What we know:
- By secondary structure, the protein is an alpha/beta fold.
- The protein is built from 13 helices and ten strands.
- The strands form two sheets. A seven-stranded mixed sheet has the order 3-2-1-4-8-6-9, sandwiched between helices. Strands 5-10-7 form a three-stranded mixed sheet.
- Strand 2, helix 3 and strand 3 form a beta-alpha-beta unit.
- The termini are far apart.
Amino acid sequence: KARLPMSIAVCILAKDEAVRIAHSLGQLAAQSFIRDSGVPIEIHMVANGCTDNTVEVARGCSKLFEGGCATLQVHDLQPGGKSRAWNRAVHELTSSAVETFVFVDADVTFTSETVVADMLARLEADPHLVAFSSFPVKDVENKANKNVLDKFSLLVSHRTRHVDVINGQLYVARAPVIHEIWLPNQIPGEDGFLNAMLATRGFSRPADPTLVTASPVPTHYFHSHLPLEFVSHERRMIVGTMINRWIFEYLWSLALKEPVGPLIRDWNAGDPGWVDQLVSERAGSRRWLIPNAIVFGRFMGRTGRSWWKRAAHVPIATVATLVTLPPAVLANKRLKEVGAAATW
């Protein structure tokens, strides 16, 4: 049996989660690694740019962790931005002695009380891994009577799951590697950027996708989006993907021999608009910026499947593509506007 790390920091990055934060902290307090491990655990609830009473509600939950080895600290950060909050949590708010980080969103529900302990154990058991990610499942999975939209949403998500990337809703990672990383202060796709930083040691070597893996069993449920929420969410995801792609191209062009983290730290401090400037340069005067692979990707990469599986996939891919088109159009428009990096 793999040992748990001797010191752990849990970072909950929350934006206007007053309705959910008490539930989130309650279920975190019930996790076995909090109750039973006996190792010091610092829990940082980081409110980033909140406009509601998330902070007050969270501070009222401190009694959940009394009498144990875990301590809750609540931080109210302004300005907002998840990646900015991530940088401050890692490099300013948590102890330098921490061995392992646990990052968890404030709107997830664990599938069991051993989820985080199991993830920590899997990371500790494989020295090659730098991070171990979660297996998210939409909350509609638990609905007794699923409607057509629910069934379609689940079908699409099951077919698009990736097992070698960070899922930003829940993951654990080794502190020495995390401490090398700074994220751009404003990017919509912070988990995709983090994954690239981990796989390439800060763009200083070729990507190694085996450094990150994900749980083979579901770890948590997350809120599935309503139709209008879906459009906004997908727009943000496409904007984030494109911005990450352009930043990655730029970082690779530098031919770095050392991790880029400290450079990004300095750019954030000395030139806060560096990402927006890069986006503006890459977007240029082109009318359409979104690659076909993003819009029509569900039709690609199906070679090797039997003809009947490919045929069965066509209706699903067609509907999913039609659903993707409106967010893609909105994302294209947003990428040509000032401040695209701050999209939420």
